[in-house]
Each structure stands twice: as structure tokens, then as C-alpha cells.
Specification:
CATH class: Mainly Beta
Shape: globular
Mean pLDDT: 81
Helix content: 10-25%
Structural class: mainly beta
Order of helices and strands: HHEEEEEEHEEEEEEEEEE
CATH topology: outer membrane lipoprotein receptor (LolB), chain A
Strand order of the largest sheet: 6-5-4-3-2-1-15-14-11-10-9-8-7
Low-confidence stretches: 1-28, 260-272
CATH architecture: Clam
Number of domains: 1
Number of strands: 16
């Protein structure tokens, strides 16, 4: 089901009745009503995205292609695995990156039903020694996985758990009709996101684009999914990119696709 709640016919009828009563409603009350409606829609939409989970365990292989701010380029083989769990732990996503020098970094994102995801990071040196890190503080979410532009806050989409969520409008992006969701950070310290704006496909609930702004409300990061492969009745993501607008670095996560002839979908017709 699409997470766009106002598409339901009974809700649409209720909306028509509400609009009919606006003529006798004071202006300041209408403004408050609009703000509360935007917040209610935002909370519902953020929850709908958070509740999406894989239908079955998956395993994908690909490559992290990094272009650093100084022009250096690095390709890192990566494996992304989704494991299904219980109701308390709906699923876990595991990112494993292997560096050319033998180092390895593994991040487990444990998705919870009603709370922020848990992160468990293992760093293995070339000598085999392993360091475990369990980031918990809000400022620890703004650290790059394997030195890339994909931060923990991005991979775990922790911004969808912030209390301030609101739908600010509806726009067309990449040919798709989208709800514009704004998520505001309650503790926007230095180096953190102050807010994240996400364009959500109204038909499928997929993320078409996201922009993150820093504590000074300057554009910091842009996230864009790339093309998709249609495998049977489902779509599989072929690549996605995060660009840091302030450092001019970028990271592309490119997945291996078995049948290149099935590529070509340029929007996001999937639920994730």
C-alpha cells in the first residue's frame, strides 16, 4: 500500500468536508490547522518509510567508488546483506567493505520497531586485529562508513526517527509525483544535519531524492538513487550516489546486476 494516506477515498471525502468549513474559520486557526496537518502527515509518512522491510533475505555485491575532494579515486568491493529477524528486531542490514590493503570494515544496522536503529561497527586491520565500535551518541551518527560519503545517519536513515517530521508540499521529481518530507534534527550541533528534505514517490513510497542541510542551514549532502533493473515483478537498485556539496567529494554505490539488458528505469518505482 502506498504511504500517501490522503489517496484513500474515505480520507479524501473527509478532506472535502474540512475544506468546506474554512470560510467560517479564523485565519490564525486555519494556519495552526495546516501546521498540525503537515506534522501529522509527516509523522505518518516517516513511519511508513521506516516500516518498509525486505520481503526476504537478500545478498548483493557491488563496488563503492569514491572520488575524494582532492581528486583521488578509490574503488572498494562491498557486500550488502539483509537478514530478517523477529518483531522486536525486524531486520538487519550488513555492509561489508574490503580494502585493497587487506583491511575490512563491517557495519551492522539493526532496525528496531519503535526506536532508532542500533549500529555495530567492526574494523579489521591487515594483521587480523578487530576493533568493535557501537556508536550511540547523536554526533557519532555523522561518520562515514569505510571512509566514504555514506554516513551512519544515511545508511540507517536515522533522520526519519527525529520527532519533528512534516510534509511541506507535493512536487514532481524525475517524472514521479512526490510528497516532500522535511525532518528536523532536535540537536543540530556542528558537523550534523540540521534538517533533511526527502522527496517520496506517492505511488510506491520510494525515495527519489534527499538533501541534507548543516547547522547553518547550508546544503551539505545530496542523495540520488540511479537506475534500476526489473527482475521479474520487482525492481532492484543498480546504483546510488551521495555527494558532499561542501567538500566536493562523492561516493557511488554500484551493484552488480546479472542481466544488463533489463536496465533502463530512470525513476524510483520500488518501495526502497
Amino acid at each position: 500500500m502506498s504511504p500517501t494516506l490522503h489517496r484513500h477515498p474515505f480520507l479524501a471525502a473527509a478532506l472535502v468536508l474540512a475544506l468546506a468549513g474554512l470560510a467560517c474559520t479564523p485565519f490564525h486557526a486555519r494556519g495552526a490547522d495546516r501546521a498540525e496537518k503537515a506534522a501529522a502527515e509527516g509523522r505518518a509518512l516517516a513511519a511508513a518509510i521506516r516500516d518498509q522491510r525486505p520481503a526476504q533475505p537478500t545478498l548483493s555485491k557491488g563496488t563503492l567508488r569514491v572520488r575524494h575532494a582532492d581528486g583521488r579515486r578509490l574503488s572498494i568491493p562491498v557486500q550488502v546483506k539483509a537478514e530478517l529477524g523477529t518483531n522486536a528486531f525486524p531486520w538487519t542490514t550488513i555492509y561489508e567493505a574490503k580494502f585493497p590493503d587487506g583491511r575490512k570494515e563491517t557495519l551492522r544496522v539493526v532496525n528496531l520497531s519503535e526506536a532508532m536503529p542500533h549500529f555495530i561497527l567492526h574494523r579489521a586491520g591487515g594483521d587480523g586485529n578487530i576493533t568493535e565500535i557501537r556508536p550511540q551518541r547523536p554526533d557519532e551518527m555523522f561518520v562515514g562508513f569505510a571512509g566514504t560519503d555514506f554516513w551512519f545517519v544515511d545508511l540507517g536513515m536515522t533522520f526519519l526517527h527525529w520527532p519533528d517530521q512534516r510534509v511541506t508540499g507535493h512536487e514532481t521529481r524525475r517524472t514521479r509525483r512526490c510528497s516532500v518530507l522535511e525532518s528536523r534534527n532536535p540537536l543540530p550541533g556542528p558537523g550534523a544535519y540540521q534538517r533533511v528534505v526527502t522527496w517520496v514517490d506517492e505511488e510506491t513510497g520510494g525515495i527519489v531524492r534527499a538533501e541534507a542541510y548543516d547547522s547553518q542551514n547550508r546544503l551539505l549532502k545530496e542523495f540520488t538513487p540511479g537506475s534500476f533493473a526489473k527482475i521479474g515483478s520487482r525492481y532492484e537498485l543498480r546504483d546510488m550516489e551521495i555527494r558532499n556539496e561542501q567538500t566536493d567529494s562523492r561516493t557511488t554505490l554500484q551493484f552488480e546486476v546479472d542481466d544488463p539488458e533489463k536496465l533502463g528505469v530512470k525513476h524510483l518505482p520500488t518501495t526502497k
